[in-house]
Amino acid sequence: MVTILIAEDDRNVRLLLGETLRSAGFTVIEARDGKDALDQLDQKHVDLVVTDVMMPHVSGIELVELLRESGYEQPVLMLTVLDSFQDKEAGFTTGADDYMVKPVDLDELLLRIRALLRRSKIVAAQELIVGALQLRMTDATVVTPHGEIPLPQKEFQLLYRLLAHPKQIFTRQQLMDEIWGYDVESDSRTVDVHIKRLRDKFSAYDDFTIETVWGLGYKGVIQ
Fold it and tell me: What tens digit of pLDDT does each residue of 44-98 get?
């Protein structure tokens, strides 16, 4: 279940937001201010933060700054009565993912939260863990215990496709269509060449194998 932290110093607003999110099926953690939010985040996993801007001790702006500086990457939605462009710019520049002006429409709030969660899942899907290896789509790199192995885009896409669907057989034509598209200068032998290169580069690792299925194509097998 998705866990959302609400940082809001107004008790009535905090309770209303909490009730709304719980009714929508979310697990809710409530924080009285930015300092309380930091303490909660230090102890619990949170998928998304909803924070007021004007809070005592640690403001919403300061909270987001501290979270981003510490490497916290989950989405943050700011709620505030401050509605000038400069205020919104400050929120987004600090690292907020969305910004709503109070009083907020609760149905719109839910729509925005769900959109932020969808986008964060897309980002998460750009990394694939296979044993001790991490396939990082953002820069087409495989992270190993011994260092990083950058790959050409086509090799990385091919490896990612096979390992994201282990034991599924892909024909050469399928792989050509999905990875090379309508590149008329390529043919099915291109797949074989790239498979050989991948096998050579990862021959020292036993986290996975790329197996040939004679007469059909290839499949990735995670050990």
Answer: 888 899 999 999 989 999 999 999 888 788 899 999 898 888 888 888 999 999 9
**CATH number of the domain at 127-222, please?**
1.10.10.10
What is the side-by-side strand order in the sheet with 3-7? 27-31, 3-7, 48-52, 76-80, 98-101
For tokens 């034991």, name the residue. 167
Distance CA 61, CA 66 (A): 9
Q: Could you tell me the pTM of the whole model? A: 0.57
d(CA 80, CA 65): 16
Q: Using alpha carbons, select from 174, 177, 161 the residue that is nearest to residue 210.
A: 161
**How many residues does this entry show for the chain?**
223
Would 3-124 and 127-222 be classified into the same CATH topology?
no
Give the CATH number of domain 3-124: 3.40.50.2300
Task: List C-alpha distances in Å: 159 to 4, 137, 156, 193, 219.
Answer: 35, 11, 5, 13, 10
